[in-house]
Amino acid sequence: MGARRLAAVLALTVAAGSALAGCRSQPDVAVYLGDRTVSTAEVDRIVKDVNAEADRRIADWGHKRAADPNLLPPPIVHTTGDEVVSLIVLADAGQRIIAERGLGTRAAPADTIAETFGLPPTDTYVQLWTRYLTGLQSVAAAELARPLTDDEADRLFEAGAADPDADYDEAVHTFKTSINLGPLFGAQRRFGDVLDAGTIAVNPQYGPVVMPVVMEGRHLAVDFPEHFEEG
Length: 231
What we know:
Layout lengths: L3 E8 L17 E5 L2 E4 H28 L13 H21 L8 H8 L6 H18 L8 H9 L9 H10 L4 H15 L3 E3 L7 E7 L2 E2 L11
Antiparallel strand pairs: 1-5, 2-3, 2-4, 5-6
């Protein structure tokens, strides 16, 4: 199994409610999800907990490596408020799409996600990723599997979805011929439609909503359909 890494692959074309206005302008609210809110304090806590654990693991690995220079690093992940907010927003949006379209649910494996990040399955960050990937997989499974356009393949490369030392032409060709990546962009459009509806709003102190994915070598470590249909 290749090394896994995080890549914020697709910046949504909608700024997810961008500036909060009128009654939705409380500075201590990070996200409005319809009638439900998520506070900036909650987002900060998730970020602090994840990064503190990552720093602890790095320090522990450094001490042990003094005795064993060949010791490989443990799973380590750092996060940001922007990423956590994106996960919160897209996890909610995915559930809305599943309910509204009557889609089947393709559950993401919490244990595998936890192992990837080196965190327990009960960790809030792991649970956010699990809910987000469950929604993404479920929505993508209902989309058309197709080759990518030149623009889509270029966007994947520019976002860091290829190996760092990959040749541009080779990587873009690989993306374009991988027909099971098409549903990723179909799902992106579905998520964008939910954000366009205006029932989700994000505090402007956070960046644009992005669709983060876990990379395994050159492949997305997400269960997308592998069939191809002419559309």
